[in-house]
Amino acid sequence: MTAELYGIAASDGIAIAKTYRLESPSLEFDKKTIEDPEMEIARLQSALAVSETELELIKEQAEKRVGPKEAAIFGAHLMVLSDPELIGPITEKIKIESVNAEYALQEVSDMFMEIFASMDNEYMQERAADIKDVRNRVLAHLLGVKIPDPGLISEKVILLAEDLTPSDTVQFNPEFIQGFVTEIGGRTSHSAILARTLEIPAVVGVKKLMKTLNDGALLIIDGIEGKIIADPTTEQLKEYEQRQKQFAAEKIELASLKDAPSRSADGFEVELGANIGSPKDVTSALENGAEAIGLFRTEFLYMGRDSFPTEEQQFEIYSEVLNRMGSKPTVVRTMDIGGDKELSYMDLPKEMNPFLGLRAIRLSLDMPDLFRTQLRALIRASVHGNLKIMFPMIATLEEFRQAKQLFLEEQEKLRTEGISFNENIEVGIMVEIPSTAVMADVFAKEVDFFSIGTNDLIQYTMAADRMNENVAHLYQPFNPAILRMVKMVIDAAHKEGKWAGMCGEMAGEELAVPILLAMGLDEFSMSATSILKTRSLISNLSKSEMESHIDSILSLATAEDVKQYMGQLITEKSQ
Hints:
- By secondary structure, the chain is α/β, with parallel strands linked by helices.
- The protein is 47% helix and 14% strand.
- It is built from 23 helices and 16 strands.
- An eight-stranded mixed β-sheet has the order 1-8-7-3-4-5-6-2. It has an eight-stranded parallel beta barrel with strand order 9-10-11-12-13-14-15-16, surrounded by five helices.
- Helix 7 (190-198) links the parallel strand 5 and strand 6.
- Helix 1 packs across helix 5.
């Protein structure tokens, strides 16, 4: 029976495929006394063998997609799986106590996890997480339940999930994953940003999704309207297949703007950049006509691994991106770990409000050795391109000065060591905390540039969690309070002769672009797939004409008033 559900349009496009439910199975079982221990050990060996085959395949595919460094975690899992120090005691327990394999596996693995977790050695603590992951995989096979493995998908599907984690998405193969739908999230959630990077349609924040849709159902995703249709009628299938073709044709038409300048109808030039998370994203950025990398999220270098990346590993990655971008600017954000981005091998404190806690620059300043390693790698890599460094979540001038001082100290050390680097690296900040926006005139005297991170600036200003669909109505990019703050930052930068960019998703919003152009934003950075559409939009806008509307827009009372004003203005221009 046909069913229609609605959510938040997270990534443009139309997808039609069968569903694949990505959900963790129940691993509950009862302790049992068994009569034939040898048969039970054979069950265990079979589950171990199947798990090994799966992990070998996942590791191989992850190496192809994200590289051997990022796939190393699966190598660690394979080592656990074949470790006689772990497997031996499990088989002994089955023999001596005549218990079922599930019980023996859980008891022994829990004991080892407790031992490793209590050690002072960080490397040994990391092994506890590896044992848990491997244990759950083997347990699922013993219980005969399906464990979700995005990396093993080998047919075209649409993923359904309550939410998606970075460890899920590191396994994504866009060849088979046509799109996804989640119960949780908003347009600026990491899963939504990932969908736009992979250029696959997505709808997020669909309530009761997992209760409503079954595995294997035919599904249509409309990532433009935020709509999904399960078990569509023949007429609906024909309609959306036609829409798919139309969407593809529009992409081809926009591709002609790949090498065109980003210039308004009255000759005002801006820079359109791409937000990326790894070196492989550079390909999409360049193919979509990016004139810069406006945001390189380096925290993804730290994810999907079992230990911190070394200075040399980071140097190689930064150098690769800078080499590929050539003379085009590359703005690298130092690690933004914390909040919703946790590391299994890092013992971060449990906090009531992690988004307001020890994260981003606060964590970097709290762990200066880790921060210095990243800064050294970046400074060394600067000879390979046009590097700019950006500190995230700066709340006070003291934080910026502390971070800048560490940067200068690492420069001096490298100078003493005789290692060459670019002496003129620009160092700026993300403006994503209201206190910084309000003090932008003071910051502008010391920073080289601003990049406005609207994803967080909006949630902190409106006191509304951008990942929480219950308060999604309060996440308002067009609220006059946000627009006034953005203008304040741009004006402060220009007064000191500095440039101002925006790397939040708002930079690619159709209704926001004319406002930002009128405010004089110098650089717009967005998901690569939004660049050509934005270039086309800007080419049809007159900056001077839009400037005449700014005072009226900023005097409006609500976000809805702003959207109506802009919608009417764009409609009038298109007539």
